[in-house]
Automatic annotation (TrEMBL):
Class of the enzyme per the UniProt entry, highest EC level: lyase
Family assignment from sequence similarity: Belongs to the IlvD/Edd family.
Catalysed conversion reaction: (2R)-2,3-dihydroxy-3-methylbutanoate = 3-methyl-2-oxobutanoate + H2O; (2R,3R)-2,3-dihydroxy-3-methylpentanoate = (S)-3-methyl-2-oxopentanoate + H2O
Tree of life domain: Bacteria
Domain Dihydroxy-acid/6-phosphogluconate dehydratase C-terminal positions: 365-554
Stored InterPro entries: DHAD_IlvD/Edd, Dihydro-acid_dehy_C, DihydroxyA_deHydtase, DiOHA_6PGluconate_deHydtase_CS, ILV_EDD_C, ILV_EDD_N, IlvD/EDD_N
UniProt name for this protein: Dihydroxy-acid dehydratase
Source organism of the structure: Nitrospira moscoviensis
Residues of the active site: S473 (proton acceptor)
Subunit structure: Homodimer.
Function of the protein: Functions in the biosynthesis of branched-chain amino acids. Catalyzes the dehydration of (2R,3R)-2,3-dihydroxy-3-methylpentanoate (2,3-dihydroxy-3-methylvalerate) into 2-oxo-3-methylpentanoate (2-oxo-3-methylvalerate) and of (2R)-2,3-dihydroxy-3-methylbutanoate (2,3-dihydroxyisovalerate) into 2-oxo-3-methylbutanoate (2-oxoisovalerate), the penultimate precursor to L-isoleucine and L-valine, respectively.
Cofactor binding note: Binds 1 [2Fe-2S] cluster per subunit. This cluster acts as a Lewis acid cofactor.
Binding positions for Mg(2+) per the UniProt entry: D84, D126, K127, E447
Modified sites of kind N6-carboxylysine: K127
């Protein structure tokens, strides 16, 4: 195999002049036989700080065993991860989106520095999933990504719960609707073991999206983290990457305009996270594929919402797996004529071939039939208007409000808005505005789950709207507009809004507007005093200087 493939690793390891490199690798246990085989990097995102990635050491051992069984030599390496759920609502949350770039950069650098022939990337929490695939697109080596899988739901007072319930319980507790003992009981039982957050939040959204993109093997990401078959999936992925190497199938042959459209359709039909917009824009850029924020809305208008998944629905990712999994989702889109079926995937089969093998559990209620969708169109919409000239993202799965108008309550930091919600200062009919939390202004574009969950927990989820130049968690639901662009720190109209200004959400017309003339907005913006940057050095400051708009994926260049 090695002679036929003209392996990159031969430049590193073959010939008398490469004796020093071989000597150093032998110091850590590699043999001449090992070094004569294709070298496959196993990019692991294991970290001890969260359940999402905690079990990835176990899976990496099985991936490596699969690589060895198929005639390769695995070399494992690690990168960073930042937990959104743990850092949520604190200054630490600003590190989350920034970590996506660091993850991609570090995986790329190790693979380039050591001339790997192929790569398997293991992901878990939110930013590790797109971060790994961004790196694979840059490297364009035979490669695939395996998601570590979802956590199982916890049990509280006789029903299934996820981390979403804990965040919303904070609002219930603050408004006197939950006791200290109940909150503690929920906290103790919501997360029963390893795996990423259990609803159709960002992690499971991106795991499904990348199966439809073709960069993860169809149906395998959905196997829950602690399912006995997950180890078998990992072993299979180790063998699979060797087939990709043998056949010289590379990411840029897989990541195309049509495969990205398949990924967007999967997000739309499953009611996925608004963060998918950021991440798929970023992937498209890395792969050299033209994609704009408007493309998401065009696809969303064609695709029915079929999955009854949390946060807007009843079921978890583990329930979807039991019902028939991602393959069943693909079959639904195939039957609807909404899937580009003849596209290659890392399994060596087309996505259409994978979809035709779907098996549906009798009586399942997680994924609706095409004849009875939850909604006739998908879960994400893009709004524009005089408050968001470059667009913003609204998740419409889980609520039915199509129009909302109310007075602005304006906050320049997430913490200030959270205090206002807990203090009962937000009333029915208000539009909460949180700004200076964008990619550059935050920096890092924090998620607002602490605020949005507190609003829902306080019983205001159906009577209050919110907009921000920051992000939302995949667990957010209600009428919430995120990624408002341009952001406040870069002169976006959101910086001109004052308390009491009338703001209108019009979902049908795809508009987000404030009742001000363009002349008044311009006059106000001239008088805005931008806040002093919170970081003047280090990675945060560097990111703030170089990051693009959310409407372009919040990528650095």
């Amino acid at each position: 195999m090695s002679k036929e493939l003209k392996l990159k690793s031969h430049d590193l390891l073959v010939g008398p002049g490469r004796a020093p490199a071989r000597a150093m690798l032998k110091a850590v246990g590699f043999t001449d036989e090992d070094l004569a085989k294709p070298i496959v990097g196993v990019a692991n995102t294991w970290i001890e700080v969260m359940p999402c990635n905690f079990h990835l050491r176990r899976l990496s051992e099985r991936v490596k065993a699969g690589i060895r069984a198929a005639g390769g030599t695995p070399i494992e390496y690690n990168t960073i991860a930042v937990s959104d759920g743990i850092s949520m609502g604190t200054e630490g949350m600003k590190a989350s989106l920034i970590s996506r770039e660091v993850i991609a950069d570090s995986i790329e650098l190790v693979a380039r520095g050591h001339l790997f022939d192929a790569v398997v990337a293991l992901s878990g929490c939110d930013k590790t999933i797109p971060g790994t695939v961004m790196a694979l697109a840059r490297l364009n080596l035979p490669s695939l990504m395996l998601y570590g899988g979802s956590i199982m739901p916890g049990t509280f007072q006789g029903h299934d719960v996820t981390i979403q319930d804990v965040f919303e319980a904070v609002g219930k507790h603050a408004s006197g609707k939950m006791t200290n003992e109940e909150l503690k009981d929920l906290e103790d039982h919501a997360c029963p073991g390893p795996g990423a957050c259990g609803g159709q939040f960002t992690a499971n959204t991106m795991a499904i999206a990348f199966e439809f993109l073709g960069m993860s093997p169809m149906g395998r990401n959905g196997v829950p983290a602690m399912d006995v078959h997950k180890d078998d999936v990992a072993f299979e992925c180790g063998k699979m990457v060797m087939e990709l190497l043998k056949n010289d199938l590379r990411p840029k042959q897989i990541i195309t305009r049509k495969s990205i459209e398949n990924a967007i359709a999967a997000v739309a039909t499953t009611g996925g996270s608004t963060n998918a917009v950021l991440h798929l824009l970023a992937i498209a850029r890395e792969a050299g594929v033209k994609l704009t924020i408007d493309d998401f809305d065009k696809i969303n208008r064609k695709v029915p919402l079929l999955a009854d998944l949390k946060p807007g629905g009843r079921f978890t990712a583990a329930d979807l797996f039991q019902a028939g999994g991602t393959t069943l989702v693909a079959k639904r889109l195939l039957d609807a004529g909404l899937l580009h079926a003849n596209l290659p995937t890392v399994t060596g089969r087309t996505i259409g071939e994978e979809a035709r093998d779907a098996k549906e559990r009798d009586g399942q209620q997680v994924l609706r039939p095409l004849s009875n969708p939850i909604k006739p169109t998908g879960g994400l919409v893009i709004l524009k208007g005089n408050l968001a000239p470059d667009g913003c993202v609204v998740k419409v799965a889980g609520h039915s409000m199509m129009k909302f108008e109310g007075p602005a309550k304006v906050y320049d930091r997430e913490e200030d808005a959270f205090v206002a919600v807990k203090a009962g200062q937000i009333k029915a009919g208000d539009v909460v505005v949180i700004r200076y939390e964008g990619p550059s202004g935050g920096p890092g574009m924090r998620e607002m789950l602490g605020v949005t969950a507190a609003i829902v927990g306080a019983g205001l989820g159906d009577s209050v709207a919110l907009l921000t130049d920051g992000r939302f968690s995949g667990a957010t639901h209600g009428l919430m507009a995120g990624h408002v662009a341009p952001e406040a720190v870069r002169g976006g109209p959101i910086a001109a809004v004052k308390n009491g200004d009338r703001i209108t959400f019009d979902i049908a017309k795809r508009r987000l507007d404030v009742a001000l003339s363009q002349k008044e907005i311009a006059a106000r913006l001239k008088k805005v005093k931008q806040p002093v940057p919170r970081y003047r050095s280090g990675v945060m400051a560097k990111y703030a200087r170089h990051v693009s708009s959310a409407s372009e994926g919040a990528v650095t260049s």
